[in-house]
Amino acid sequence: MKDIYKELAGAAIGAREMSYSPYSHFKVGAALLTKEGRIYTGCNIENAAYTPTNCAERTAFFKAVSEGEKHFRAIAIVGAAAGAGLPFDICPPCGVCRQVMMEFTNPETFEVILVRDADHYQTRLLKELLPDGFGPDHLFGEDA
């Protein structure tokens, strides 16, 4: 699994370069791994009105879901101010992104990889980042 973590970390670092963040100057990249091993990347995309801004994590999820993917294993996230050199401080996902992850993953097994650089990262299960999260099971039961 360590090799895939390193690959995801590298993909997230690469995606960070595509960030559109002219207001915060805080660039974020994400790399989402499907159960089948496909990787979808995303970056944060800001907007002058702020509310329409989209985080890197949600960009990756929405790209994947819009192409028919619905089963995911892990996501790597890296973020830092523009011009920051490696290693970065870890960049945990915001609450909205954690909620989107809850919609499409099993929080007991889905891994969130918080990247400092391609060789240094921390892993957390979604259930650790979003304890007692609200998901589809709450609306429709466990067989949803």
Tell me the quaternary state: single chain
Count of helix runs: 5
List the helices and strands in order: HEEHEHEEHH
Distance between the termini: 29 Å
Describe how the helices and strands are arranged.
Blueprint: H1 2-16, E1 26-34, E2 39-43, H2 56-66, E3 72-81, H3 95-104, E4 111-117, E5 120-125, H4 126-129, H5 136-140
Parallel strand pairs: 3-4
Antiparallel strand pairs: 1-2, 1-3, 4-5
Tell me what the structure shows:
This protein is an alpha+beta fold. The chain has a five-stranded mixed beta sheet. The model has no long low-confidence stretch (mean pLDDT 94). A hairpin with a 4-residue loop joins strand 1 and strand 2.
Which descriptors apply to this entry?
globular; alpha+beta; 5 helices; single chain; 5-stranded mixed beta sheet; 144 residues; 5 strands
